[in-house]
Structure of SAP domain-containing protein:
Amino acid sequence: MASEEDSFNTITLKGTPVTELKVTDIKRELDKRGLSKSGSKTQLLERLKAQLLLEKLQQDAAQSSGDELE
């Protein structure tokens, strides 16, 4: 079973691992989400990964809530 850390390191955006994105692409995705675009590539990646993980958790929670209503 994959650990939570493994899942965090393999986060993808449109099928591409975020670690393979260029800085300009990372900044574009951060801008779409209203997040800061300043910092090193590592900082930008961590910020984007955290946001994508949060979005996934929120989506999963919304789906779970929807399942309970049916």
Notes: The beta strands are 12-13, 16-17.
